[in-house]
Design a protein that fits this description.
Length: 331
């Protein structure tokens, strides 16, 4: 077995031979092999030719639970974990990599409602995405800065403000693999990993979403059988245009993954004819001004988002009371 810490080129033929046989012929890697392979990819020890082959093979085959587990193990070991502030709530981790194409992006509203209650809210993702309105753009319009290092993260937490950190600063090696989409034209496993990784040294509540139905079963199995329970709890839901905020028009099912179990917290709501008031347009400025008005009580906040916020606060407080004595908090 090759040394994971080596700087030598990493031979991937035996891995590609397993995963590259197509949908019916491909076999999944073990967790250890998946970790070894993804660590080499993160370290830049895999050639461009092999990298493209691996990414396309995994996209065609689909990741197994063991592969996702190994990939996450390598991913979380590739960057320095963050420290959490002293709080009655565990950190709430919100990935934001999709933005809005059709509906207004109300993830910033949810984040601000959580932070207003004193919860440490950490958002990581992309700053901009052509054709989409990102969470980062809206938060910056609302005068919340981007944090580029651990010191700035701590300063934002001290202000009881939501933290916004680009993936380039949080996990630069993963960011490089995300950028392969611009070359290959399709997403790769890293797009799933950034939505499920846990960046803190202490247990945290992760808000996680899926887009394609087949990922519901795989991620449910991963979080209940393979994810370390000491890393915290997870809310899993169908994304609103890919984002982990409840759909303002009708609530999605939210599953709570905790201690190897899956509990349904919010039931899927049927479509309704009477839609709640929403921003007139989905652009950055209109959305930001509407969010400000909603926070002042001048616009009604969608019931589905209020229910999501309530559940986040309940579980984050429960998680902190269960694990609050662990190291990794800023004191």
């Amino acid at each position: 077995m090759q040394n994971p810490s080596s700087t030598e080129p990493f031979a991937t033929a035996r891995f590609i031979k397993e995963i590259g046989r197509g949908v019916k012929g491909a076999r999944s890697l073990s967790r250890d092999d998946a970790q070894l392979l993804y660590a080499a990819m993160l370290d830049g020890r895999v050639s461009d030719l092999e990298m493209g082959g691996i990414m396309l093979a995994m996209r065609i085959k689909g990741e197994s639970v063991a592969e996702i587990a190994g990939f996450v193990d390598a991913a979380e070991a590739s960057f320095e974990p963050l420290l959490a502030p002293v709080s009655e709530y565990a950190p709430i981790v919100i990935p934001s990599y999709n933005g809005a194409r059709q509906m207004p992006n109300l993830l910033p509203l949810m984040a601000l409602l959580l932070a207003r209650e004193g919860a440490p809210v950490f958002i990581h993702g992309v700053i901009s995405d052509p054709g989409r309105v990102t969470t980062a753009e809206i938060l910056q319009e609302l005068a919340y800065p981007v944090s580029h290092d651990a010191q700035q993260v701590a300063e934002q937490f001290a202000r009881r403000a939501p933290v916004l950190m680009p993936i380039e600063d949080l996990a630069p090696r993963m960011s490089r693999l995300l950028a392969m989409r611009r070359i290959l034209g399709v997403r790769n496993s890293t797009h799933t990993l950034v939505k499920i990784m846990q960046p803190f040294a202490v247990p945290a509540l992760r808000l996680t979403s899926y887009t394609h139905p087949e990922y519901l079963a795989m991620l449910t199995t991963y979080f209940t059988t393979a994810a370390p329970s000491e890393r915290g709890d997870v809310f899993l839901m169908r994304g609103t245009e890919g984002e982990t905020v409840a759909n303002a028009k009708r609530a999605q099912q939210i599953s709570w993954m905790h201690d190897g179990e899956c509990t349904i917290l919010v039931q899927k709501q049927e479509p309704v004819d009477d839609l709640p008031p929403l921003p007139a347009e989905r652009d950055v400025v209109t959305t930001a001004r509407w969010i400000e008005a909603a926070l002042r009580g001048e616009e009604p906040i969608p019931i589905s988002i209020l229910e999501q916020v309530e559940q986040c606060l309940l579980v984050a407080r429960h998680l902190q009371s269960k694990h609050g004595g662990q190291d990794g908090a800023v004191r």
